[in-house]
Specification:
This protein has 185 residues and is α+β, with helices and mostly antiparallel strands. It folds into 2 domains: 102 residues, Topoisomerase I, Chain A, domain 4, CATH 1.10.132; 68 residues, Gyrase A, domain 2. The chain is built from 5 helices and 6 strands, in the order αββαββαββαα. A hairpin with a 4-residue loop joins strand 5 and strand 6. Helix 1 packs parallel to helix 5. It is elongated.
Length: 185
Amino acid sequence: MIDELLADAKERMSKAVDQTSGEFATVRTGRASPHLLDRVVVDYHGVPTALRQLSTIGAPEARLLTVTPYDASSIKQIEKAISDSDLGVTPSNDGRTIRLGIPEMTEERRREMVKVARTIAEEGRVRVRNVRRDVLGDLRSLKSDGDIGADEEHRAETELQKITDAAVTQLDGMLKAKEADILEV
């Protein structure tokens, strides 16, 4: 029973780390990345639709993204959605493809992006701690029901803390790498 709880905690914490990693990919760095457009939502015929579902996104150069819509009639809506987003880029199109020149980030903008990355990391840590809290509650209820003893509960709590520390360390490492990537000129 304890092993199942710990395995479940490890799996849920791993998912929290993976989710945070995906969120880090959407934070702008000095280079063009198709993941920058993951959060862009287009009003496509009255339905909010993710840009990735409406087009092919490529990064042919270090400072250029291309967006090629599957439906050429949606190019104006896509261009408007990109302009309205918080990316700080101006789209230009040739009728078939939208080009996004990724400008060099200023020092101030880099610091803002580091703050965004730190916020994402903290949200990931909170998700990991919430899993720990849930599993601790389950362990305490097992003890109060008489299913496990105090020693078993203590050993399980120690193991759970090790799993939690490993997940938080992983998140901290991802944050450090992302900060270095953002601040790289």
